[in-house]
Each structure stands twice: as C-alpha cells, then as structure tokens.
Specification:
With 176 residues, this protein is an alpha/beta fold. Helix content is 22%, strand content 35%. α1 (9-19) packs across α3. The two termini are 23 Å apart.
C-alpha cells in the first residue's frame, strides 16, 4: 500500500481515468488481472469493468481470459498466475501447448510476468506485453524484471476467410 499513488477503488479508477493515454481512434481491449480483481474479491467491485464504463476508449472483455477479434484477426488475452521462470519463454509455451488445435488464436498475449518478449510458436504470434508497475520491494524480492512498456503491432493480413496474417511487425516501447 505504501507504493501506491492513489489509495482505494475510487481514487485509483479516477487516477487511471485521468492519466491513461487517450488517442482518437485507439481502443484498448483489456482483461482484469490479479491486482485489479483484488477489489472484486474484497468488495465485489470490478476495477477494469468500472473504468471501461467511464472511458469509451477502454473495452473490458473479461476477467483473466478473453478471445477477441480485431479486423478479423483472432487474439487470445490471458492473465497468468504464479512466478516467472528462468527461461522467459517457458510460461507462454506451456499456455500455448494447452490450447486445442481448433481453438488457437492468431495472436496470444500473456500478462502477469512483468516481462517482454515476442515469439512465434505453434503458428501463433505470442507476446509477453510488459507491465506498467515500477519495481518495488515485493517485485525485487521475487526477481521480477518489471519491464515497463508494451508493444505496438503492425499486421498485414490476406483477404481470405481467416484473415491470415501475412506479416507482423512488433515495436517494443520501453521505459527505464
């Protein structure tokens, strides 16, 4: 609690509402993760769902997991659990291995591990998206990298029934 800028649900929602970037034509599709859902567990309030009701450019799509389509491209969003491993790709590979053959998204984004990585695995473009949390005593003790930033992804698709990805270019925007 001493690492927080804003305390309590209302103050935190107001802080994000006022400070999260808002750009014309850009929508953020988001799932809730373990920190967001601590309010739900303690008081029945869903932080991200409430935030999305206040900002029309933020689209809450579920808790921990969702599958969305943007311009016909299927994207799996998942908020993992547990600690990271020595091999940064291990967690995302294990999650991908559990997806059945007919259910694989074209892009898979796995949050929770405070790391960044782009990987092409089992014909899926995979991302560890980073985080927005600065290092604190807890993350330092766990050895979390707290790589602050995220990816901008440029995609070219074929004009076929699956919107097959012809090319993908990922740009990592990082902050130190």
């Amino acid at each position: 609690e001493f690492d927080l800028i804003a305390h309590g649900l209302d103050c935190q929602i107001k802080y994000v509402e006022e400070n999260y970037p808002k750009l014309d034509g850009i929508t953020t599709h988001v799932i809730s993760g373990n920190h967001d859902l601590s309010f739900k567990q303690n008081a029945g309030a869903n932080f991200v769902e409430t935030l999305s009701m206040r900002r029309n450019d933020i689209n809450w799509v579920g808790d921990y997991d969702a599958n969305i389509k943007i311009n016909g491209v299927s994207i799996g969003l998942h908020h993992g659990a547990g600690s990271s491993t020595v091999q940064i790709s291990y967690k995302i590979q294990k999650y991908i291995d559990r997806i059945g053959g007919g259910n694989k998204p074209q892009i898979y984004v796995l949050g929770h591990y405070h790391s960044t990585m782009a990987l092409f695995y089992r014909n899926i473009h995979c991302y560890l998206p980073g985080c927005f949390q600065k290092p604190n005593d807890f993350s330092v003790r766990l050895g979390l990298p707290n790589l602050i930033g995220g990816y901008i992804v440029h995609i070219k698709t074929l004009d076929d029934e699956h919107c097959s990805i012809r090319s993908i270019k990922s740009e990592l925007i990082s902050y130190y």
